[in-house]
Amino acid sequence: MGTQSHIAGYPRMGPKRELKFALESFWDGKSSAEDLQKVSADLRSSIWKQMSDAGTKYIPSNTFTYYDHVLDTTAMLGAVPPRYGWNGGEIGFDVFFSMARGNASVPAMEMTKWFDTNYHFIVPELGPEVNFSYSSHKAINEYKEAKALGVDTVPVLVGPVSYLLLSKPAKGVEKTFSLLSLLDKILPVYKEVISELKAAGASWIQLDEPTLVMDLDSHKLKAFTEAYSELESTLSGLNVLVETYFADIPAEAFKTLTSLKGVTAYGLDLVRGTKTLDLVKAEFPKGKYLFAGVVDGRNIWANDLSSSLSTLESLESIVGKDKLVVSTSCSLLHTAVDLVNETKLDDEIKSWLAFAAQKVVEVNALAKALAGKKDEQFFSANAAAQASRKSSPRVNNEAVQKAAAGLKGSEHRRATNVSARLDAQQKKLNLPILPTTTIGSFPQTVELRRVRREYKAKKISEEEYIKAIKEEIKKVVELQEELDIDVLVHGEPERNDMVEYFGEQLSGFAFTVNGWVQSYGSRCVKPPIIYGDVSRPKPMTVYWSSAAQSMTSRPMKGMLTGPVTILNWSFVRNDQPRFETCYQIALAIKDEVEDLEKAGINVIQIDEAALREGLPLRKSEQAFYLEWAVHSFRITNIGVQDTTQVCKL
């Protein structure tokens, strides 16, 4: 028996965002469809080769996409909304990208967050009128493409029930329309696809059914049972993996999953699904495979290999040695691509990290260790890195830990009540009944970006930089005064990104050069890494806000990004609960609020753009999240005077 290793999915963009640039060049008409296909084929083949070279047994195909995997499924099913004027036949780039991005005459389909990640998918628009037909052969084409390169892959499809549960009724369809009533209409297409894959030689297939981790009622759970019973005869002769991820799987759903007809293997997230382990240990069907997701697909930390190995060994006795497969907790889509391209991170921090390419190696190292071929050197280097991270003075700041601990159990409310504060603020600010203001940032011109870039590259002096930024602020202030705005903003010309700008000035944060993660389509974000206790060494925004206030007699708003948004848009340390890190950031923002106030800034806006984005998938966990998220905001302005107005957006 060889090593049993599996990767649930892989980033599509490429180590240096090759796909992003190829897509944007194609959309701008600067390159051909063939050019785009060539870049994409090269990316796919290098990923397959990389996984194969690492010893991966179950290598995924069809996890690449030109835009989004759910949109790929919509194309596969021929579920194109009528406004795109598609008349049947194989769906090409024109129709595909019109659905994704809209075109000159019709808007794009809606986009929404993929579970609780920062990735966005294109929401299918369905109704009783949709005629489903097999209209995109991407899955079979990619399977054959890999096979021609000598790699036998596991084709991955979004499972039929999750596809419907993630859809919405199309415009004009009753909001109460049951999307699951379309199951009988889409299953024939799934049967065609599966039969074709089987005929081409596929021996395994992966169906992603992540909605199984949600709070589903019995009617929805029954849909899984019915769908897989219907597919059973088509699936026979294949090994079928049903993959779930992002949370604990509820006990009822686990029962449903493990009794699905025609399914030979279950993929479970054991990083976010700690309770799932108990379900497996209590009852796991004999003779079935467990794809154990022990390597975190959603973060950039190196795996604690010895801890994972002991988890796997405890599972071996339940599942059986030949039926346990080491896997990622979910697709690696949600992590950065390759640590090799990080030239600016120091060696210590680098030793604590693993991006997608390194996670492939970790999965295989664990699988080899299980098979009795443990790479002692690799394991001991990993143990040393884990130990250094635990004890590093860069991670641990006792003063911050004390301050955060001191917050527990207090109510974090300002001392006086709201009406008294509003009176005091009105006396100080003297605003009209309905005062006007703007949200904050003004457009960043090409010229502004050039100034910031040249300053960063040391091509212009600090004096020249400050002069240019102050000139821009002056323009913005004059414009607002001309328009008779009551509470002004400085326009934020000095800021690159609402999270990065603060993270760069806080301790406990690190930044990558190429740690890009796909947000949607060709859009990528580069999340900061919070590796240690967070504190604010010195004021971050006071200089610019004071400069702006000195240009006007009207109130100038201080502009800060809130702690929850900074948390949700970063890779967060995994060695303490998220809320503790959030409280630390809140304390740093609190220091900034107090310094702004001392500098004479009496209106302070704290942006929480991502407050809802951290909301847990399961209702039972949402109340706790909202509680600490609200506490975090309160902490930021607990110490200010009554005359200072703090608002949250």
TrEMBL record:
Q: Which domain of life is it from?
A: Eukaryota
Domain Cobalamin-independent methionine synthase MetE N-terminal residue range list: 5-318
Its Enzyme Commission number(s) read 2.1.1.14
Quickly give the catalysed reaction: 5-methyltetrahydropteroyltri-L-glutamate + L-homocysteine = tetrahydropteroyltri-L-glutamate + L-methionine
The record's keywords, sorted A to Z, are:
Amino-acid biosynthesis, Metal-binding, Methionine biosynthesis, Methyltransferase, Transferase, Zinc
Q: Which GO terms describe its molecular function?
A: 5-methyltetrahydropteroyltriglutamate-homocysteine S-methyltransferase activity; zinc ion binding
One GO biological process term? methionine biosynthetic process
Tell me if Secreted is a UniProt keyword of this record.
no
* Pfam families xrefs: Meth_synt_1 (PF08267), Meth_synt_2 (PF01717)
| Required cofactor names | Zn(2+)
Q: Which residues form the Cobalamin-independent methionine synthase MetE C-terminal/archaeal domain?
A: 434-646
Q: In which pathway does it act?
A: Amino-acid biosynthesis; L-methionine biosynthesis via de novo pathway; L-methionine from L-homocysteine (MetE route): step 1/1
Gene3D superfamilies from the UniProt entry: 3.20.20.210
Job description of the protein: Catalyzes the transfer of a methyl group from 5-methyltetrahydrofolate to homocysteine resulting in methionine formation.
Q: Which NCBIfam families match?
A: PRK05222.1
Write the protein's name: 5-methyltetrahydropteroyltriglutamate--homocysteine S-methyltransferase
Please give the organism: Linum tenue
